[in-house]
Design brief:
Number of strands: 23
Radius of gyration: 23 Å
Strand order of the largest sheet: 12-11-10-22-21-20-19
Distance between the termini: 41 Å
């Protein structure tokens, strides 16, 4: 089928030419515009308020032409950085290019940035900052999405990644591993059981997981686990062991707390979420990934929000890789900080690379096994901002449950790694008003009420009730330079937090 573009305006801007074409076509098909003899193309998602999602997909050379594929939806623009010789108004839909995959449905995307109350220039600055690390070769790929008023205002994916054993351009349909940003999702699954009266944060873990009650852990409660005061911050156990139920139950009994549960805060890498997930599975009778899919992802209309990735979907997964060189010791001394990963214990390069193992990807790992898109993360947090309701009004979390979930429960306990109050709620972090939100996984522009959970390697997920903005950022490039990673996270979070008009 060939359709004709009836209107095209060439706009000369400070970055080159832009072809603006309005397409009244269906959302789930692909089209391409052929611009002959152009030097180079890149995204131009915000000129005149265009939705940037319309600008990714793939590039394909054909003789002297480049074919730039984009979804047939609403307004989109393509920028030709070079002399434009001609513009052919052929809009074709090659059947072989149509995509069977799911991702956030088209109805979750705003027609333009301003529609959901965000500033197009500020959103463009956010996208430019995210793309910079890929352009400069610091990261192989990254993906980000910013949402407001229940819709994604902008989503973009930059770079390339090994997917299904083949290195190819990453797209908005590429999955990334969210690492500890997973903890917010697993915690929200527990919130459902709490509001149903099936479990209480004050309950002792041994009530549901008797195997945990050994070596001084008998008094540990679920609140201790959720706010990282259980005393098992670096308890041994690998991603692979979680997939072996017999082995993980053995681990429960082996672990010995560093202190009396509830006495001190120390960030737990992953062991605290093992008994949480075990309790969810025993109470619900479902695997954690199945529970999340049925009770959270599907009601939200987000089938790609997954803890545990089935083999048939793993070809969409970006392989993780380590990049860069560690920061020098004098850089830490100059800043007066301890290396952020100094106490990470069981997290090392080899363990992180286990995330490329198909068995690990499918194992429903509760503290780091969320494999999804940045758009799905942003929309998950939109539901939390929408009083626990899905886009169609379906209630998933009760209002009172969300108020309790966001209440700081760690009191004045200090995070020893950062020398500041921990600000831990029920499985999530609260930004706080002490000027140190940038050290808790947020930016310098977030309000004190912002909440979420970051993930190892620079993964990000948060929501800000003050602005209604939610944000997701994912990368497959694990930077050995943790100072650079931290600066990057603060930069994109700060830009995202300031995008409201």
């Amino acid at each position: 089928m060939v359709l004709r573009a009836k209107a095209a305006d060439w706009v000369r801007g400070d970055r080159g030419f832009a072809a603006m074409v309005r397409q009244p076509m269906s959302a789930r098909r692909l089209a391409y515009i052929r611009l002959s003899n152009c030097v180079r193309f890149s995204k131009d998602g915000f000129q005149n308020g265009a939705n940037p999602r319309a600008l990714r997909v793939s590039r394909k050379k054909s003789g002297t032409s480049r074919q730039v594929y984009a979804p047939e939806k609403s307004l989109f623009s393509l920028r030709a950085m070079g002399k434009v010789m001609d513009y052919r108004e052929d809009i074709q839909t090659p059947p072989s290019r149509r995509r069977p995959h799911t991702m956030p449905s088209q109805n979750f995307f705003a027609d333009n940035v301003a529609q959901v109350g965000l500033n197009p220039d500020k959103v463009q600055a956010l996208m430019d900052r995210a793309e910079r690390d890929v352009k400069e070769g610091v990261l192989p790929a990254c993906q980000l999405a910013i949402a407001s008023k229940g819709k994604i205002a902008a989503m973009a994916t930059f770079g390339a990644a090994v997917q299904g054993g083949i290195e190819r351009p990453a797209t908005d349909e590429t999955f990334f591993v969210a690492m500890s940003a997973t903890k917010a999702i697993t915690s929200s699954a527990l919130w459902i059981l709490i509001q149903e009266g099936k479990i209480d944060p004050a309950d002792k873990v041994v009530k549901y997981v008797p195997e945990y009650g050994a070596n001084g852990k008998e008094t540990t409660t679920f609140e201790h686990l959720l706010i990282h005061t259980a005393g098992i911050p670096v308890a041994p156990g690998s991603f692979k062991e979680w997939g072996d139920r017999k082995r993980r139950l053995e681990r429960f009994a082996q672990w010995r707390p560093d202190h009396t549960p509830g006495e001190k805060f120390a960030y737990h890498i992953h062991a605290n979420y093992w008994p949480i997930a075990e309790a969810i599975e025993r109470i619900s009778g479902k695997r954690l990934g199945e529970f999340v899919r049925e009770r959270i992802a599907e009601p939200l209309g987000l089938p790609d929000l997954r803890i545990g990735l089935p083999r048939e979907l793993q070809a969409r997964m970006a392989d993780v890789k380590w990049v860069g060189e560690p920061a020098k010791e004098e850089e830490y001394k100059k800043l007066g900080v301890t290396p952020p990963r100094a106490n990470m214990g069981s997290i090392n390069e080899g363990v992180v690379l286990e995330m490329n193992d198909p068995a690990v990807r499918g194992a429903d790992f509760p503290a780091g096994g969320l494999m999804t898109t940045a758009g799905d993360i942003a929309l998950f947090y939109q539901a939390l901002l929408n009083d626990g309701r899905a886009h169609d009004g379906t209630r998933i979390w009760q209002s009172e449950m969300l108020r309790e979930a966001r209440r700081i429960r760690s009191g004045n306990l200090i995070d020893p790694a950062r020398g500041m109050t921990a600000n831990r709620a029920l499985g999530i972090v609260v930004a706080g008003g002490d000027g140190k939100a940038n050290l808790r996984g947020f930016g310098r522009t977030n309000s004190a009420e912002a909440f979420g959970h970051p993930g190892f390697g620079g993964q990000i997920g948060w929501a800000d009730p003050a602005t209604g903005i939610s944000f997701g950022y994912l990368t497959n490039g694990f930077d050995r330079n943790d100072l650079r990673e931290g600066r990057r996270s603060v930069a994109v979070c700060s830009l995202a937090g300031a995008c409201a008009e």
